[in-house]
């Protein structure tokens, strides 16, 4: 019984650490590859991408945070009225 | 007169059992540690308070609702009952927290230096050695842990609160209180636990190693990374998909730049609300019969060991990498692989500055730091998979 | 043609009963009071709107879900059904609101002058005399209230919305609509109800009493106070622990200084979300058969009496205290003991300024004001305990 | 060895079915459209991600919870299971979103020129012609849609996401994924779909029509309007009351000026939280067997037709109105009647500026734009009523 | 069977569009009427209304957004300390 | 029957008000005592306490509110760019 528990623990250690290492090592490779590929693909149009996505955001429904804007405005108004 | 008796009989003093009293003191101690010593207050304040509430005799915070034969509610359940069963037993709260943590995580340093992922892998050794330690305690007849309980104890070494809560609520819900408290306490103790180990395993020369400045990371990489990670998890390790999937979702919302209002809410209102209720719900499991026993002491000891081994493994892995790679890594950042974001990274930075006041390791340590989050989520997935089949 | 008939048959006009029409007008009246007259708009706007929605004939806002024999959902329930059963029947919403109110409460003035707690105690006389009044109405055969209903009506005199909703949802859910509306309406009417009573019971000389400036209160006191209150409640009055426990939790988050992000969310997003749904859920209980009856009129009259008696008791208690203490208390601040935070305190301040334009009572009145919240939560706990055993 | 096999057997690669793989690619495509092309990112990012998660083999995002004979939880359900059944099957999430949209909607332009409501009515022709098209496809044996499915497909033409989700979850839940994706995609494509139709149906002279400046709208009108709309709906069309009731509630909170903190939270934290979970929940219905079939292609084609017809009907209605009214309407703003707030109004403005660089139509187009929201909610109510009786 | 489906579709079109048009046409009338009535009723006391409701808001419990105020204050303090 | 109801009401009044007064009177004592004890204990190190807790807060995970900071920054930037 006890030895089963120990052997289960050993199995967990072996296969567990094995999987963690295998997975993260693979992720190192895939991340490196991904960075190379992505940067090569996007390199010619970095400005475009940003611009597009900003347009995208503006196009999105309800994309402005009205409260934040009000806060900023209030801060500025208050400041101006004091100075 | 009957009413006086009724009031007295239902008073806390008349009903109080010694266990409840001790647990209320435990709750107050957690609050003291959180408020006065700064131990992970965002979680330990709600956990500590929840502990007190759950142990108020006769208040019924933990009571299940009662239905009559027709299915109508006769008496409602307690607040902590609903929180625990709706949010923790189902796993929903840890997953939402993981989404929020993802939305707060900057993968930039990791993307600039992907091999630091290996440091995050190495630090998970602490998890699995601790599992072995827990079953060994059983073998020598000292304490009695099942394999499911041993796995839950090990995950303390992942230094990641929501991961520990997620795994424990699935594998060993009775230990939830002890394990969550141990996990968050040791994360708070990182600045005390780690430095001696880091100094013992490194030479002054190693601690002075200067690392190359990190390259800038493009927005496209930041967007594609969480998706790559998600696909890899989906292909290889579906058991880790709930945790890592929500983590990647939060990070994608952060980085994609087109849903900033969703990302802001995830990082603020949503994660704060869920944190409050997660803490209270964990506290509801802090009952005397589940916490005041030798097992809890064993959990605390094993948890500390897990942190130490994880730290050592991270540092040693960095030294091993230096023997094969020409881009040298300062071994101090290996200790950040246990996660405990961002404290472990700050500790690495501080010890680095002691050795060389011009050597800023913070950004370099953030890579293994977030890698440790991924690593422990992967370990959690493997354990849930393997243990369920045992 | 069948379709035309179907459309007509299912239209509101064809299905409308006179009770529903009147209740919709009641809802519009509540909205008018809230928007145009400023009656507690944060609650009365959702309650008023919920009243209208619940009385739209055929819209099914209140419908229960239907399941087939296999347990699959055949038709979903209405929005108000889910809100009421998940948040109000269980008591969750009032408790979360109490947590939020705790996070918004400054106990400083109370800590600087703890004996004002007695004013908060005295004002609860209104609660219990009203209970007596309600059972007396039954005795004389005028109206028919059970002891559970009488207790719920009395709690209107606590001048504390979430407390009233919590007690009523436990003891007399059928009266929930009428009692919540009465409680919030009278809280809004405090500036009209209280001044005549305050003037009648005090001499101009008493109204001019100047109180000593409040001493500064240390951060440590602010942190320890909610914990002391919690422990005292746990020992003596566990039935009050749900309400006061959450109240203390919110206040501890506010004062401890290490979980500001949780406290901010509790005071803003969380309490606002729950307030909206609490109001809608209360509105769902405003049906014609439960609201349009003589009992409601009785509730409104008794509620007004409760407020008046509470106000008077607070003022008289202050005068009594002045006969034994050398630190004189301006009796006007006794009226703030009914709670109705912060309006009752403002009323005390205003009447004080009328008597002496240099006598600012606002901060002094905040002490009894928050004491009244504690007092009515204690009263709620006692009543739930005693009534459940009767 | 057994463990290796267990890990492999439970890995995604071993369990992956081709359908799941394709659906994951569909999910990635939706993310690409949302992030890179700006297609309604607030919904399509969560829907796309939810699609991927729901199709991770073996991850159990969609799994139902398992209870033992005693009613205790044996294994918890998946995140998406809980989200779908708690928020979408019950209709709660679309209703809360509608409340939020109401709180974000400015009815000023509509109140200044109420006859633009007719443009919002006309544009709903798209909905009903599409229903006819769907049943015709069945008649000719091309595809097989029931009347419930046909009605759900038609509502895509309403150009209103939450309305489409609300109707579909009631009438044809199996089509939810396809219909939600079609609805949001076409809303994003409005700037491409509408202009050719608008140009084809108008003369340059018509496009240059200058409209009178809108009169200022008083605060009282803004407050009374949502209440009038609510009462009208309650009297005539209770089936539309859930959607329009919550819409009016949100708008009343916005305009009444006394519950700004509730309105702010509704417009921010609350709608953001619900949007995230609504998107994930819709994604959970994007399974291969429900999405990868000829019906989806039919839905996409019919949805596009619905948008085109709706646009045309709006423009033609405006021209018709000009034949009888002396206050001329620029027919371009008729196209905004499909809703798709605020994009359709911006498109009308842009085409107007092309014709005459001094002719700003944006505010004029906001009237039909929000009228379209009301129009499609009314259409939804009628369809739910009629179809349920068929 | 099929013809039933088509006839159902036609019914839906007929009664559906009919209801939509009838409802929104009615709403045009009611809105116009409402605006006239409301503006006539309120015209004498526009200032009063606004003032009343502002008082109302101040009277409401917990009506101040403390966070917003803190933010503004912080912004101003930070600005002053820098200038 | 009725008299039972009345006697229940009287009981409620008696025991209820009794408990409320007893509890709050006790709370007066405990609060006063607490203030004395706490202020005596903390008096020597008030600065330390505050400092510690501020450190504590900084040490806490995710303790910064990025949105608030962004708002303040935005307010300041906007103001500077205008002035
Ligand atoms: Na970790
Ligand atoms: Na009170
Ligand atoms: Na529409």
Task: Please describe what this structure looks like.
The complex is a heterohexamer, with 3 copies of chain A (83 residues) and 3 copies of chain B (390 residues). With 83 residues, chain A is an all-alpha fold. Chain A folds into 2 domains: 1-44; 46-83, no CATH class. Chain A has helices spanning 2-42, 46-59, 66-82. In chain A, 30% of the residues are buried. Chain B has 390 residues and is an all-alpha fold. Chain B contains 20 helices and 2 strands. Chain B has helices spanning 2-9, 12-15, 18-36, 41-54, 79-88, 92-104, 108-112, 117-122, 125-139, 147-154, 161-171, 176-201, 204-207, 219-236, 241-256, 260-283, 288-291, 294-324, 343-355, 362-389; strands at residues 66-67, 73-75. Chain B has a two-stranded antiparallel ribbon with strand order 1-2. In chain B, a hairpin with a 5-residue loop joins β1 and β2. The radius of gyration of chain B is 22 Å and the shape is globular. Chains in contact: A-B, A-D, A-E, A-F, B-C, B-D, B-F, C-D, C-E, C-F, D-E, E-F. The C-D interface holds C 3, 6-7, 10-13, 15-16, 24, 28, 31, 34-35, 38, 41-42, 45-46, 49, 52-53, 56-61, 65, 73, 76-79, 82, 268-269, 272-273, 275-276, 280 and D 85, 89-92, 95, 170, 223, 227, 230-231, 233-239, 241-242, 245-246, 249, 252-253, 256-259, 261-262, 264-266, 268-270, 382, 385-386, 389. The complex binds sodium ion (3 copies). One sodium ion (NA) binds at residues 158-160, 338-339, 372-373, 375-376 of chain D.
